[in-house]
Amino acid sequence: MGKSFQLICLILCLSLGAHAQGSGISWKKISQISLKDLSGKTVQINGQKPTVFIMFSPECPLCRNYVPVLTDLQKSHPEIAFYAVFPGKAYAVDELKRFHKDYKPGFTLLLDQDKKLSRHLGATTTPESIFINELGIVVYRGLIDNWPSSLGQKRKVITDKYLASAILQSGLNRPVITKQTKPVGCLINDL
């Protein structure tokens, strides 16, 4: 084979591999977005390790019910940062404090009042999980698991734990089988 043919094959393989890994998110842009924590302090996220963002709403029953599941997942994977992001001006730090007091999540709660992070991530729904590796590649996005079958409808038995599976497969350096599902919940409002 000629060198030019080998070069073309190498370029094609590299571009297909990059496409197969998923879409990218700019950690640099995320690090420039100001969010507020429970104390009202401004924080930025640096992306130095794999991160799961979960879009949350304090009045969403699904979000409330997923707190123990996500807390257990965070405890099982301390190498991954977990953030519940509350998008929009409809929420205040006091609501995050009440949510924390009432539900005791084992992960960080952040307020995204200007929805800059939510827009950058392409988030549309609460709850919606977005798992990004340290390179900025979206490993998985969508449902936490298949418990909600549609808005207001829940399965009796959870058969697919999408987020947990993506974390496990990624940690084992295996391809993630399910890269995206359509989230079920309330649309992120414009407030």
UniProtKB/TrEMBL annotation:
Superkingdom in the source lineage: Bacteria
Cited SUPFAM superfamilies: Thioredoxin-like
Domain named Alkyl hydroperoxide reductase subunit C/ Thiol specific antioxidant: residues: 29-140
Coiled-coil intervals: none
Protein biosynthesis recorded as keyword: no
Molecular-function annotations in GO: antioxidant activity; oxidoreductase activity
Signal peptide boundaries: 1-20
Name listed for the protein in its UniProt record: Redoxin domain-containing protein
Native source species: Pedobacter psychroterrae
